[in-house]
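<given_protein>
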Amino acid sequence: MATLCRPAIAVPEHVITLDETLDLARSLHAGHPQLGLALRLIENTGVRTRHLVQPLEQTLTHPGFTVRNQVYEREAKLRVPEVVERALDHAELGAPDIDLIIYVSCTGFMMPSMTAWLINTMGFRSDTRQVPIAQLGCAAGGAAVSRAHDFCRAYPGANVLIVACEFCSLCYQPTDLEVGSLLSNGLFGDAVAAVVMRGHGGCGVQIERNGSHLVPDTEGWISYGVKDTGFHFQLDKRVPGTMEMLAPALRTLAGKHGWDVSGLGFYIVHAGGPRILDDLCHFLNLEPERFRYSRATLTERGNIASAVVFDALARLFADGGVPEGTPGLLAGFGPGITAEIALGSWVGATAEAVHRRPRAIATSDIALVHQGVPRRFPAGTTITE
């Protein structure tokens, strides 16, 4: 079975606190008729700090969609490689070992995808497959795990790199004054995450099953208005109550696997807001402590879209993991309304060196090394001419 290894996470250096967010809302929207409501909603998010890819004064300006997308591409190329390198290190693999790259983002646009740039600049093989995911929003982190699992089942022994790059602050629209927009201005943050799913070996979550669920007739509840000024985030007031509709899907998938969703050992879920987590506790009959990693991500980094599940999973690793064989769940929620769910069991360090697949390195790769192009080959690699 394929194993989701330890994620690598990075957040930008510019920080905005809750107090600064509230003060900013008061000064920018002093005459707004629903300012009091917006301030209460922002306070109730539980978000205390967020990270921004640009300084605050630049974040608040809107130079146009062209410039913003240029910022997205520049910052992605600047920040993604280091996170990818750490994720590969965590998985004890090198770039030539990766068979598929899944790149997830809903906050900027590139074509060719960032996957092509990574292959060309970081030593991945030219036959590495590419799957960009751009329109699943916050659910895309869970979807990427599921698609990586599907690929590893179709190609036993294959390895998949997942990259999530979300610069939500580049979607700030100063002319959007609905309460939902004001709330989003105090909720979303920026982050980059990467994680490897190993086809054999590895320490982490051994994925056993995945599934999706779409709530009918909720397409307009979370959406983008795509305009001359870029992406305008649109949030329906009914979204916080969606767990009543999605929790049964989690229970059903676990039941098909012979598991009780209320009796698992760990839960890694997308923290869109505190109401999501509170409702999951209620509908799944769980104690709030069960979602402590997701709550910590929300508190310290805000809603970082598709990267939330990887940040929360990284916190589980940092906490020492769980006992061998412990069952758990990973889920992302987003536009659709969609849930992307994966079930798996924890495998510890004892499995790290088991079934490591040797990779024969071609002459073309050796030539790149001679040209000064960084290539990293794992232990046990054989050289072929």
In short: Residues 350-371, 373-385 have pLDDT under 50 and may be disordered.
